[in-house]
Amino acid sequence: MWTDALLAYAHYASILFLAGYLLCEYLLLRHRDTPPDPAFLARIDIGYFIAAIAVLASGAGRLFFGAKPAAFFLGNPVFHAKISLFVLIGLLSIAPTRAFLRWRRLQREDTGWRIPADQQRRVRLLVLVELHLVALLPLLAALMARGIGYRG
């Protein structure tokens, strides 16, 4: 019982951290007057990556060591939709990560360099799409927890 509760807590907390890091990236990219520091964006993105790993690890823990058997999840199409959505979010996050690293390198090479507005706008839009998709994860989790989609 304690194991399941602690795994659930770790899973929920890591999802909140993941959303928090994404929100932080979005808010920093939103400013048009003062462009964000690319090195700071890259550090925040590392936190996002660590949170994503924590989501995966705690989710795997819940799958294999939680109160519900693995068959409850593996036989549920809602679970597969949730995993697919998480993978999609991860794939979408590749472009912002590459941009942050590229911007950091360009700023190190030329301290007067500024993030081009069109690139900042594109990356901000991608991060916003990620945020909206992350908001769907708890819905899928709630459906799954109530047995919706389960065919056992």
TrEMBL record:
The keyword Zinc does not apply. The keyword Glycoprotein does not apply. This is Transmembrane protein. Keywords: Membrane, Transmembrane, Transmembrane helix. InterPro entries: DUF2214_membrane (IPR018706). The chain crosses the membrane at residues 6-28, 40-63, 83-101, 122-145.
